[in-house]
Design a protein that fits this description.
By secondary structure, this protein is of the alpha/beta class. Helices cover about 40% and strands about 20% of the residues. It binds zinc ion. Zinc ion binds near residues 167, 177, 179, 181 and 184.
Length: about 325
Amino acid sequence: MTPGHAIGIDLGGTNIKAALVDASGAITYKAATICQPERGAETVISEMAQICQDLLGKGSLSAEDVVGIGLGTPGPLDLTKGEIVRAANLPGWTAVPIRDRLQELTGMPVVLENDANAAAFGEFWAGAGGGCGDMVMLTLGTGVGSGVIVDGRLLHGHFQNAGELGHMIIVPEGLSCPCGQRGCLEQYSSAGAVARRAIAALQAGETGKLRAILGQAGTVSSRDVVEAALEGDPLCRRLWRETCLYLAIACVNIQHAFNPATVVLGGGLAEAAEFLLIPVREEFRQNRWRLMVDVPEIVLASLAYDAGVIGAAGLAWAAWRQRPPQ
Ligand SMILES: [Zn+2]
């Protein structure tokens, strides 16, 4: 009998999220627990194995009823070895053979993938990608995560690091990025960057609605910037216009690199919805190569914070379909 489910896991620095997902991409059961990476990789992997058992219990299933486990984790990863090479938000974890250890503990096949790629695959498979084979997703959160789907498959590249689009240089000699480059997209068009740039402008003496919030709370959020821009605050309107312009230029570059049918925008900044989408589409139209008639549709993500677990499960389904029958 054909198994009816896959397990998707999204491992983050603070939470482990998991779900039992059917062949259509719908979640049957969810589970989550706090991730304490400082307790060591082996402990966390054991906890993930326990979550898998809990999910099977909730669904009254056994390991044979599941095609496998998809696991999205922070990277960089060595996909050949199935290892986390190291990760900024999993301190002390280096060369962790996470794929094989989880496989040993659960007895189920495990597919390892970068977390941003897993989220992109989720939107491609069961979300805003709409079933098209060529899609790019940008997750506008603390930074800009991304994943590229070409001909129905995640693009990894020769060095397995393809699609780090948050670090495409959008402003030559621009703002410094922790990656060591300057002018990366994520220094302008992520939720984190929008807040940081507003604070920097206020601290440099610019005035505006956010000065009071900064004075009271000691910080401002990207949501504060969006609200003030919606209310017509000149500083926030300028910052928002730049944010959307750089994002649109990134979409033009993405069109030339990958020619996707769809560019999906997700993450915290995409909660601004039409206020983000309309100017990005307009700037894209203004800046693109006019001779190209067919251009990608720029849309909002639809799976919100479930994209990671659904996409990880989707990768387990894809691996199962490619496995030769036993
Ligand atoms: Zn960078």
